[in-house]
Automatic annotation (TrEMBL):
The keyword DNA-binding applies. SUPFAM superfamilies: Winged helix' DNA-binding domain. Keywords: DNA-binding, Transcription, Transcription regulation. One of its GO terms (biological process) is response to stress. It comes from the Bacteria. PANTHER family: TRANSCRIPTIONAL REGULATOR, MARR FAMILY, TRANSCRIPTIONAL REGULATORY PROTEIN. Residues 26-162 form the HTH marR-type domain. Residues 1-22 are annotated as: Disordered. PROSITE patterns: HTH_MARR_1, HTH_MARR_2. This is Transcriptional regulator, MarR family. Pfam families: MarR_2. It comes from Paracoccus denitrificans (strain Pd 1222). GO terms for molecular function: DNA binding; DNA-binding transcription factor activity.
Length: 172
């Protein structure tokens, strides 16, 4: 019987990773995502403290940023998936009281309230936009956004988002 030399052996195909490895990697991703969100809130908080603005919470500042130039209802903010119902209602009420958001009843549906930023709200949005621009520039210069490309990472997260949304629809 002839023996094959090691150079002639056929390489074995790698088996797929065990499911537990995938589950652990998925759970690690969730933990990283959660930590990133908390760090984002801390970064916004630190920026506003640096600017001497203590009247807004980081969540409120992000709500202002995400509202942007739009005029929407609280329900539209919820349906975009940005905020929970009671959370957005409470924060919008506070932002109106603080003068960052203007609100008025819709002509067609008097139950609905449309909101948009005031001049003070636009200034807050600009502060957050400048913070994000500085971060993006620093990350870009450091190469962090290159491997894997941030666009590929975003595509992956959109797929996870779509999967989660389908899971929620399936439940109800």
């Amino acid at each position: 019987m002839q023996q094959r030399s090691s150079a002639q052996t056929v390489p074995a195909l790698r088996p797929p990773p065990p499911q537990t490895d995938r589950t652990e990697a998925y759970l690690e991703s969730l933990q990283i995502l959660e930590r990133l969100h908390r760090l984002l809130l801390d970064l916004v908080k630190d920026e506003f403290e640096r600017l001497g603005r203590s009247d807004l919470t980081p969540v409120q500042a992000l709500l202002i940023y995400n509202l942007g130039t739009s005029e929407v209802t609280a329900g539209e903010l919820r349906s975009r998936g940005m905020y929970q119902g009671s959370n957005v209602s409470y924060n919008l009420k506070k932002l109106v009281e603080l003068g960052y958001v203007h609100h008025e009843r819709c002509d067609m549906d008097r139950r609905a309230v449309r909101v948009r930023l005031t001049q003070a709200g636009q200034e807050v949005r600009d502060c957050v936009a400048q913070l994000f621009a500085r971060h993006a520039e620093g990350l870009d210069l450091s190469g962090v956004l290159d491997d894997p490309p941030i666009e590929a990472v975003n595509l992956q997260w959109r797929r996870v988002e779509r999967f989660w949304a389908e899971q929620i629809r399936y439940i109800y």
